[in-house]
Specification:
By secondary structure, the protein is α+β, with helices and mostly antiparallel strands. Helices cover 46% and strands 22% of the residues. Strands 3-5-4 form a three-stranded antiparallel sheet. Strands 1-2 form a two-stranded antiparallel ribbon. A hairpin with a 4-residue loop joins strand 6 and strand 7.
């Protein structure tokens, strides 16, 4: 299916009898803000796969994430209504993070992202000079 037959110039997907989707660009940009950042899909994946996790357990599962970045990412996911933070004890302070119903509803999206990456042999190549990941797709 060509993108021309599905998308018009305004970013709306078109079906045979009119728009299939409306507000496509706005929706995709909003989704990118919520789940399109570097660590968010990985955090969601681990919470889907391993259930509720404490901060340290989650940090151990997410390779190369700093405590600061994990904390910021969890705050963003909590603000978006995808993660609940539950205080387990005051002394010492122990918290646990769990996906909300909305967070759990991302499972098909995360699954498809992983499947697509595996199918297209996508790997991340760390660029030391830019400090950003460059995505490589086999055949490019």
């Amino acid at each position: 299916m060509s993108s021309e037959s599905r998308l018009d110039r305004t970013g709306d997907a078109r079906g045979p009898s009119g728009p299939l989707f409306t507000g496509v660009e706005e929706t995709l940009l909003s989704m990118q803000e919520i789940i399109g950042r570097k660590w968010q899909p990985i955090i969601v994946y681990h919470l889907l796969d391993d259930g509720p996790l404490g901060f340290s357990a989650l940090k151990d599962r997410v390779d190369d994430i700093s405590s600061k970045m994990l904390s910021e990412s969890l705050d963003d996911l909590e603000a978006a209504g995808l993660v609940d933070r539950r205080l387990l004890s005051d002394k010492p302070v122990r918290v646990e993070y769990e996906l909300t119903e909305a967070g759990r509803s991302l499972e098909p999206l995360i699954t498809e992202m992983v499947n697509w990456g595996a199918e297209h042999d996508v790997t991340a190549d760390e660029s030391e000079t830019a400090g950003q990941s460059e995505i490589l797709v086999e055949g490019e």
